[in-house]
Design brief:
alpha+beta, globular
Length: 136
Protein backbone atom coordinates (compact mmCIF):
# COMPACT_ATOMS: atom_id res chain seq x y z
CA UNK A 1 0.00 0.00 0.00
CA UNK A 2 1.29 3.48 -0.84
CA UNK A 3 1.86 5.41 2.38
CA UNK A 4 2.19 9.14 3.04
CA UNK A 5 5.71 10.45 3.60
CA UNK A 6 6.29 11.54 7.20
CA UNK A 7 7.81 15.00 7.66
CA UNK A 8 7.45 15.23 11.46
CA UNK A 9 11.05 15.80 12.62
CA UNK A 10 10.31 14.68 16.19
CA UNK A 11 9.02 11.30 14.96
CA UNK A 12 11.93 10.90 12.53
CA UNK A 13 14.47 11.70 15.27
CA UNK A 14 13.49 8.62 17.31
CA UNK A 15 15.63 5.52 16.80
CA UNK A 16 13.63 2.69 15.22
CA UNK A 17 12.92 -0.58 17.01
CA UNK A 18 14.51 -3.78 15.63
CA UNK A 19 12.38 -5.52 13.01
CA UNK A 20 11.05 -9.06 13.48
CA UNK A 21 9.53 -11.60 11.09
CA UNK A 22 6.13 -10.10 11.91
CA UNK A 23 7.34 -6.91 10.22
CA UNK A 24 7.75 -8.56 6.80
CA UNK A 25 4.60 -6.78 5.44
CA UNK A 26 6.40 -3.44 5.85
CA UNK A 27 8.47 -4.46 2.81
CA UNK A 28 5.43 -4.29 0.55
CA UNK A 29 4.44 -0.84 1.81
CA UNK A 30 8.00 0.41 1.28
CA UNK A 31 8.07 -1.12 -2.22
CA UNK A 32 4.74 0.44 -3.19
CA UNK A 33 5.64 3.84 -1.76
CA UNK A 34 9.08 3.87 -3.39
CA UNK A 35 7.52 2.99 -6.75
CA UNK A 36 5.03 5.86 -6.34
CA UNK A 37 7.97 8.26 -5.82
CA UNK A 38 10.44 6.71 -8.27
CA UNK A 39 10.90 9.99 -10.15
CA UNK A 40 12.29 11.70 -7.05
CA UNK A 41 13.50 8.96 -4.70
CA UNK A 42 15.90 5.98 -4.63
CA UNK A 43 15.45 4.81 -1.04
CA UNK A 44 13.14 4.87 1.96
CA UNK A 45 13.24 3.96 5.62
CA UNK A 46 10.19 2.57 7.43
CA UNK A 47 9.94 5.61 9.69
CA UNK A 48 9.50 7.76 6.59
CA UNK A 49 6.16 5.97 6.09
CA UNK A 50 5.17 6.13 9.75
CA UNK A 51 6.54 2.80 11.03
CA UNK A 52 9.30 3.00 13.63
CA UNK A 53 11.01 -0.26 12.67
CA UNK A 54 14.53 -0.85 11.35
CA UNK A 55 13.63 -1.58 7.73
CA UNK A 56 14.91 0.16 4.60
CA UNK A 57 14.53 -0.20 0.85
CA UNK A 58 16.98 0.94 -1.80
CA UNK A 59 16.68 0.98 -5.56
CA UNK A 60 19.66 -0.47 -7.39
CA UNK A 61 19.23 -0.12 -11.13
CA UNK A 62 15.86 -1.59 -12.03
CA UNK A 63 15.44 -3.65 -8.86
CA UNK A 64 14.87 -2.84 -5.22
CA UNK A 65 16.40 -4.42 -2.13
CA UNK A 66 14.72 -4.50 1.29
CA UNK A 67 16.95 -4.74 4.34
CA UNK A 68 15.74 -5.61 7.84
CA UNK A 69 17.96 -4.46 10.72
CA UNK A 70 20.81 -3.24 8.49
CA UNK A 71 24.11 -2.35 10.15
CA UNK A 72 27.22 -0.88 8.62
CA UNK A 73 30.09 -3.06 9.83
CA UNK A 74 32.94 -1.48 7.83
CA UNK A 75 33.45 1.78 5.94
CA UNK A 76 36.19 3.28 3.79
CA UNK A 77 37.02 6.51 1.98
CA UNK A 78 35.00 9.34 3.56
CA UNK A 79 33.78 12.21 1.40
CA UNK A 80 31.53 15.26 1.71
CA UNK A 81 28.28 15.42 -0.26
CA UNK A 82 24.89 17.09 -0.31
CA UNK A 83 21.63 15.13 -0.07
CA UNK A 84 17.94 15.70 -0.39
CA UNK A 85 15.15 13.70 1.20
CA UNK A 86 11.40 13.32 0.75
CA UNK A 87 11.00 13.98 4.49
CA UNK A 88 12.94 17.26 4.36
CA UNK A 89 12.30 20.46 2.44
CA UNK A 90 15.88 21.30 1.57
CA UNK A 91 19.21 19.67 0.76
CA UNK A 92 21.83 19.20 3.49
CA UNK A 93 25.60 18.66 3.54
CA UNK A 94 26.81 15.43 5.10
CA UNK A 95 29.74 13.03 5.23
CA UNK A 96 29.44 9.60 3.61
CA UNK A 97 31.79 6.72 2.82
CA UNK A 98 32.52 5.51 -0.70
CA UNK A 99 32.65 1.82 0.33
CA UNK A 100 30.61 0.15 3.08
CA UNK A 101 29.99 -3.41 4.26
CA UNK A 102 26.46 -3.99 5.50
CA UNK A 103 24.97 -6.86 7.47
CA UNK A 104 21.20 -7.22 7.16
CA UNK A 105 18.34 -9.70 7.06
CA UNK A 106 16.66 -10.22 3.69
CA UNK A 107 13.04 -10.98 2.72
CA UNK A 108 13.62 -14.72 3.31
CA UNK A 109 14.83 -13.82 6.80
CA UNK A 110 18.37 -14.89 5.95
CA UNK A 111 21.30 -12.90 7.36
CA UNK A 112 23.50 -11.38 4.63
CA UNK A 113 26.73 -9.41 4.47
CA UNK A 114 27.42 -7.42 1.35
CA UNK A 115 29.78 -4.68 0.14
CA UNK A 116 28.35 -1.61 -1.55
CA UNK A 117 30.11 1.22 -3.37
CA UNK A 118 29.43 4.68 -4.72
CA UNK A 119 25.92 6.04 -4.96
CA UNK A 120 24.34 2.80 -3.72
CA UNK A 121 26.48 2.99 -0.58
CA UNK A 122 25.42 6.60 -0.13
CA UNK A 123 21.72 5.71 -0.34
CA UNK A 124 22.13 2.94 2.22
CA UNK A 125 23.96 5.25 4.63
CA UNK A 126 21.19 7.85 4.28
CA UNK A 127 18.44 5.31 5.04
CA UNK A 128 20.35 3.73 7.93
CA UNK A 129 20.72 7.22 9.39
CA UNK A 130 16.92 7.49 9.21
CA UNK A 131 16.31 4.31 11.20
CA UNK A 132 18.89 5.47 13.74
CA UNK A 133 16.99 8.73 14.23
CA UNK A 134 19.66 10.81 12.49
CA UNK A 135 18.30 13.57 10.32
CA UNK A 136 20.93 14.88 7.93
Amino acid sequence: MIKDIVKDQKFLAVKSEPATREDLPIAQDLTDTLKAHEDECVGLAANMIGVSKAVIIIKIGLSSTVMFNPQIVAKQSPYETEEGCLSLDERHKTQRFLIIDVEYTDLKWQRKKKRFRGFTAQIIQHEIDHINGIII
